[in-house]
Design brief:
single chain; 126 residues; mainly beta; Jelly Rolls; seven-stranded antiparallel sheet; two-stranded antiparallel sheet; 11 strands
């Protein structure tokens, strides 16, 4: 049964110094799409994009046995693990874990045995 939440097409929005558009999406009804810029085989649901700021919010899903190759980010990235777990540098990060990954830092390989879904937020953090 649908809860009456609107399903909106993903549309980047513009931001200036004083205003930001409100955006509402009902995420369960969004389709998973193959990622073209994630350093591994992943599926994504793009929730927000601000190309002018290179900022975005998305869900990333790695399937069982998935991996993300070592990489780096130009800006700070926040991870909040919603389901499953992944391993990186000998540490296991499971559901409920929050990570703040600094910009320009090297990110080690990430692997998952049983799959993982991560909320990723790419934004400047002061």
């Amino acid at each position: 049964m649908r809860r009456g939440h609107p399903v909106l097409d993903f549309v980047p929005f513009e931001r200036n110094a004083t205003t930001m558009e409100t955006k509402t999406v009902y995420v369960p009804e969004m389709n998973w799409e193959a990622s073209t810029d994630f350093p591994g085989e992943a599926e994504v649901k793009a929730l927000r994009a601000e190309p002018a700021r290179n900022a975005r919010t998305m869900l990333v899903r790695l399937h069982p046995g998935g991996r993300a190759a070592p990489h780096s980010h130009m800006a700070t990235v926040q991870h909040y693990i919603l389901e499953g777990e992944y391993e990186s540098e000998g540490q296991i990060y499971g559901a409920g874990t929050y990570r703040l990954l600094p910009g320009h830092a090297d990110v080690a390989e990430m692997t998952t045995q049983n799959g993982v879904t991560i909320l990723m937020i790419y934004d400047p953090v002061a």
